[in-house]
Amino acid sequence: MKKTAFAGVISTVLLAVFSLSGGRSATPAAPTYGKDIAPIIDSQCVVCHHPGQVAPFSLTSYKDAQQHAGTMLSVVKSGYMPPWHADDPGLFCNERKLTPSQINTIQRWVEAGAPEGNPKDIPKPPQYHSDWLIGKPDAIFTPSQPYDLGASGNDVYRCFVIPTHYATDRWVKEIEIRPGNLHVVHHLIIYLDKDGEALKLQAATHDGKPGYIHFGGPGFPAVGTLGGWAPGSMPMVMPKGVGMLLPKGTDIVLQIHYHRDGKPEQDLTRVGIKFCHTPPKQKMRTAMLIHYNLNIPPGDKDYVVHSKFTIPANIHIFSVFPHMHLLGHTMNVTATYPDGKQTTLIDVPNWDFNWQGFYTYKKAVAIPAGTVLHLTASYDNSSDNPRNPNNPPKMVHWGEQTTDEMCVFFMLYTVDNQDLQHQVTATN
User: How many folded domains does the chain comprise?
Assistant: First the structure.
C-alpha cells in the first residue's frame, strides 16, 4: 500500500473513532429541566415564585417552568430577573444573580423545546410549610380591621396602632412583613411607641376608619423601629447574638404609604415576628444618611446630589437599604476610613423602584470611629425615563408622594463596645 493511501485510511479511522467517542465535533446534549434547570430555579427563583408569594406565577414544577419558559428566558437575558440591582458581586449573602453560564443554559434549554428529561432527576423543590418565609412566627401583629382605600385622590399615609401588652422586654431575631394588597401598598415603616401617644392620635381620628393619618413620620417621638418594607423586600434575619429590642408595654405602629390604583381596594397587612430564645449580646440599631434638598429640574437626565456623615464610634454594619422613587437612577455609598483607605458599601448603577430591600453582607463591615460615609445619587427627570410619572416632566422636590422624590440610605449596625450579657452599655 502506498504511503499516502495508508495515511488516508488512518485519518478516516481516527475521525470515526473521534466522533464516536464524543470528541469536540459532537453536538452537546440539550439541558433538561431535571438535571440543569430545576437547580437554578430552586436556588434563585422559587423563594418568590411559589404559591402565596409576590410573584405572579409559580415555578415549583416542570409544568410551571415549561409554561413560562419563554418569559423566563426573556427576563433573565434582559437582567430584569432575578431582581438584584447592586453591582457588588460576592459582597452580599442574599445575592440573587445568575451567572452567564446559567443564562446560557436556560437559553439552550428553551431553544431545545424545554425538555423535562428523566423525571427521576428532578430535585425536590424547597418546602414552604406556611405562607411565611420565616416559618411559623412566634407572634403575628395586624391592624384590628382592614383598611378601605378609595379609587382616586392623593396618596395616603395611614398609621395603625397595635398594642403588644408584653410585661417584659422582648428581643426580635426575625421579622417578615406581608402586605395585604400589593397593588396599593407603596411602602411601610414599623415604629415603636412606649408612651401611648399613637393611641391618643388614633382616638382623636373620627373618619370611621382604623388608624390615623400622618405624613412625614408617625406623629410622635418613636422609641425605636422594627424595620420596614418596600417592593422586593425579603424578611429581616438578625445574625447570631444580635437582636432588635421590643420594649415591654410597647405599641407597634405600622405607617403604611398607600398609592391608589384607580379602583377601590382593601388592605390588611401582617407582621410576623420570631423572638430570640436567649438574650442577645448586642442590639441591632438603625441609622439613616439622607439628602433632603432635592430640586430636580424638568428635562435633567443626570441630576446629582451628595451627602456625608462621620461615624462617631466603632461599629459593624450588617445590612444596607437604599431608597429613592421613580426618578432615581443610581446610588453609590462609600466609606473613607481615617487612614484614607476607601471601600464601597453599595453601588446601584440602575435603580428600580419596584425592587427594594435590605442588602445583607456576607461578613459585617467594620467601620472605625472617624470614618466618613459619602452618598452620591443621580436622578433622571427627562422624558426618556420610562418611569417618569410626569408627562411632560416638571420640577420635582423631596416629598412623601410617589410622584415626589427621596434620597435615603438606611443601615443596620451594632456598636462594638456593647455587651448586653455582661451589662456593658454602648456609648453611642
Answer: 3
Residues in contact with 320: Cβ distance below 8 Å, sequence separation at least 6, in sequence order = 333, 345, 346, 358, 359, 409, 410, 411, 412
Same domain, 160 and 271: yes
Cα separation, 336 vs 344, in Å, equals: 9
- Beta strands of 7-114 (E only): which ranges? none
Predicted confidence (pLDDT) at residue 171 exceeds the cutoff of 50 = yes
Residues 35 and 102 both lie in one domain: yes
- Those residues whose C-beta lies under 8 Å from the C-beta of residue 406, and which sit 6 or more positions away, are 294, 323, 324, 325, 398, 399
The better pLDDT of the pair 313, 218 is held by 313
Helix, coil or strand: residue 64:
helix
Residue 344: the pLDDT is: 95
> Are 107 and 182 in the same domain?
no
Confidence band (pLDDT; 50, 70, 90) for 216?
Answer: low
Domain of residue 69 covers 26-121
My answer on whether 92 and 46 are in the same domain is yes
At 301, which CATH number?
2.60.120.230
Question: Which stretches of 48-99 are DSSP H helices?
Answer: 62-67, 69-78
